[in-house]
Amino acid sequence: MRIDVGVATDIGRVREVNEDSYLVDAPLYAVADGMGGHRGGDVASSLALEIVEAAFREGKGSLADQVREANRAVHSRSEADQAVSGMGTTLTAVMVEDATARFAHVGDSRAYLLRAGDLRQVTNDHTLVARMVRAGEITPEEAAVHPHRNVVTRVIGTEETVAVDEDTLPLLDGDRLLLCSDGLTGMVAEDQIQAILEAEPDPQRAADRMVKAANRAGGIDNITVLVLDALSEDGDPPPGQLPSPSRWPSLKRLIAGAVIAVVVIVAVLFGVRAYVDRQWYVGESDGKVAVFQGIPAHPLGITLADVDTQTEIAAADVVAIEVYRDLPDGISAENRADAFAIVEQMRADVTDAASPGTGDGGGNGGGAA
Q: Which CATH superfamily does the domain covering 2-231 fall into?
């Protein structure tokens, strides 16, 4: 099985240093999100991936064993060097061999599988709120806005030993894997991630679009994305799937092609409409800040958004604040309530910016690595 890869990383719009690192060394791929200050986070993530790669090349045990060796190396460096004391990193890795993906995971970076229109998270977040969700103490919706949602409970390097989650997944031709730091998932909802993965067939362009979406939504953290496409080497369908229509008699092939085309078109139309109706963003309408239902796109001149509410806030005043410079392109929101929360933050920031002795506002800060 062949793997086509797309990778993109970005510092985001708030951080001063990119503490994310990534590894692309077929058949091994990984993402690490460092923490521990300007120097410590960068050192932790890059050192962890260097150790994993070296251990893999030397054939030292399983992928999980290699991650545990990385933990020992980061912890030892943290203990020996006061400048990076206490540093740590998440690490999500996958090794793809013989149509099988083997995962090793620590922290709150994530791995996803997109298969036949279904996107599912392969890894479990090692965070306080994820633990509370699994225990039934809060809902996933409550976790998304919980004040402690950035508290990570398990990382590489902070202790001498670490528990590593392992998973194995058989791959099918056409499967798409996503590895990412929480700079993506903290900014872009899963349905938006799925829409990008489904709409963009090229893995590099898909990775670039997700980073751009995270920055448009605020970019409060570093963002790293790896998109891995699993493709059959010889073009034969995987076990259990129908043979290619090219092997059918000509008449059947023509009929089947026509039926499939109609079904796909209808499904796409309904799917696009359903997706668009679930999207919200804050943008500009007649020179004012407005809340829109839909997406800020105009394919073939077709408008895919409607104004839900137009405010009295001057768009020019908002765009003058650096963090909102993409207002004309649309600032994504998870839902209608989130869109109005963004508007209220804009209102407050504009007021602050207009007050004597204040800065230019910009209320989208914060967030741990």
A: PPM-type phosphatase domain (3.60.40.10)
Number of neighbours of residue 271 by Cβ within 10 angstroms:
13
- Give residue 277's identity as a one-letter amino acid code: D
Query: H/E element holding 165?
Result: strand 165-170
Whole-number Å distance between alpha carbons of 256 and 112: 32
Determine the Cα–Cα distance for residues 322 and 214; give it in Å rounded to an integer: 16
Helix or strand run (H / E) with residue 339:
helix 336-354
- Burial class for 340, CB neighbours closer than 10 Å (0-12, 13-18, 19+): middle
Q: Report pLDDT digits (tens) over 73-86.
A: 999 999 999 999 99
User: Is residue 314 predicted with pLDDT exceeding 90?
Assistant: yes
Q: Hey, CA dihedral for 240, 244, 245, 247, is it positive or negative?
A: negative
List residues bridging with 272 in a β-sheet.
none
pTM reported for the whole predicted model:
0.64
Are the beta carbons of 333 and 288 closer than 8 angstroms?
no
Q: 165-174, 181-190, 232-241, 332-341 — which is least confidently predicted?
A: 232-241
Residue at token pair 């009295």? 312
Please tell us whether the domain made up of 280-354 is placed in CATH 3.90.70. Answer: no
Query: Counting beta carbons within 10 angstroms of the beta carbon of residue 155, is it exposed (0 to 12), middle (13 to 18) or buried (19 or more)?
Result: buried
Q: Residue 118 to residues 38, 113, 345: CA-CA distances in angstroms?
A: 38, 8, 34
Say how many residues make up the chain: 369
CA–CA dist 342, 200 (Å, integer): 28
Contact 177, 113 (CB under 8 A): yes
